[in-house]
Amino acid sequence: MSVAECARSGELPKPVRQDQSLRVAYLLKRYPRLSETFILHEMLALEARGMRLRVYALLDPAEATVHPDVDRLAAPVTYLPRATLAHLGQLARAHARLLRRDPHRYLQALRLALTRSHPLVGLRHLLRAGWLGLELEREGIRHLHAHFAHGPAATAQFVHALTGLPYSFTAHAKDIYTTAPARLEERIREACFVVTCTSHNHGYLVSLVDTATATRIHRIYHGVDLRRFRLLPPLTQGPPLILAVGRLVEKKGLSYLVEACAVLRDRGAPFRCLMVGGGPLRDQLRAQIAALGLEGTVELLSARTQEELVDIYRQATPGERRPRRHPERVGGGDEHGPASRLYRYLRHSGVGGSRAQWAPRSPTRRSGTGGGAGRPARRPCAASQTGGRGTPHDQRALRPGAERGTIGSAVRYCPGSRGGRPDR
């Protein structure tokens, strides 16, 4: 059996609920990116639930290939002015306004930037955060969610420091292990809630913070839209096809796959191998394939949209590829957490879609104080106070009609997200 399309152009379902009062902004490093369909589909799922979104990106990747689903996203997309001389006047006006409005808060946020191990990086994030904070207020945004724990989460933290707007973030892979643990701990502590996509990542993030803060960190697996993908017979009969889809970068371990193909060839095993993606290692992998005499057996294809990949998936034999982990970089390098297995989702093939059947149960309110010495006072946030306790993890990831266990439901419990003004 192979993974195949259920409905290539199938529309997402009508919103399960309408909540036009809750407006959420997504802050991304680059948008749109071909390799980040998980973020795109998360936003589409929230819009399908009636949430009004706006997208802000630090950079435009200017990629030649773009997923067709990008056109389905209703949210407007805005790129932040860069911290350069060309935009200095625009940024300076925003910061002058923030300083006049609340000098004490502003100076505390400035202190937070200057006490970084790299103050210039902190100031760059602060500069852009000032403009973004006022923009979010103008648009009536009640919550800011950042994807990736490095630049986007740092900028979101400064938006909170300057304006009091609640924020949360999703931590994925490289962003976790290339960010200093002290900075991660600080961003987690200041956030309403934190999401990550594997148990390995969850365990690492929890190890950085105290027990109370750890209850706000949740593992939420990336979903598979089973209206679009399901198990169907392969398109073609023939030798097994080994398929690897992803960026051609070192941490994906594709050089080991090429070596493994040489071993299979030498053992007389019938197979084909197809690698689909773009990246800096294309020439290196092509040379390795030629050196091992694997032309005609191992083929490299350029990056494809998800729509184009569906038929390729149908030719493949199901399996799992684990990413490479550098021994010299463990705990601090460019790496992924251990792979989540596709079978978790496929074995629950009767469950509908990527409408984010996500992990934690409904959050409960708590009391207490947040913040720390030398930081702007923050209003305690009650988002996602479950500690990840709920149904077993496979079922939590794919619970039918999981209305309560979503990022959207967690946002609704953040003070300041449901109306009025953030704490000043």
Question: How would you briefly describe this protein structure?
Answer:
The chain is about 35% helix and about 15% strand. Strand 5 (about 145), helix 5 (about 150-165) and strand 6 form a beta-alpha-beta unit. The protein has 15 helices and 12 strands.
Q: What would you say this structure looks like, in words?
A:
The protein has 2 domains: 13-225 and 350-411, 3-Layer(aba) Sandwich (Rossmann fold), CATH 3.40.50; 232-333, Glycogen Phosphorylase B (Rossmann fold), CATH 3.40.50. The protein contains 15 helices and 12 strands. It has helices spanning 37-48, 88-101, 103-114, 119-138, 151-163, 174-177, 181-190, 199-207, 211-214, 254-266, 282-291, 306-315, 343-346, 393-397, 407-411, and strands at residues 2-5, 23-30, 52-59, 77-79, 143-147, 167-171, 194-196, 217-219, 229-232, 241-245, 272-276, 298-301. A 7-stranded parallel beta sheet has the order 4-3-2-5-6-7-8, sandwiched between helices. A 3-stranded parallel beta sheet has the order 10-11-12, with helices on both faces. A two-stranded antiparallel ribbon has the order 1-9. Strand 10 (241-245), helix 10 (254-266) and strand 11 form a beta-alpha-beta unit. Helix 2 packs across helix 3, helix 3 packs antiparallel against helix 4 (119-138) and helix 4 crosses helix 5. Residues 1-19, 326-332, 337-405 and 418-424 have low confidence and may be disordered.
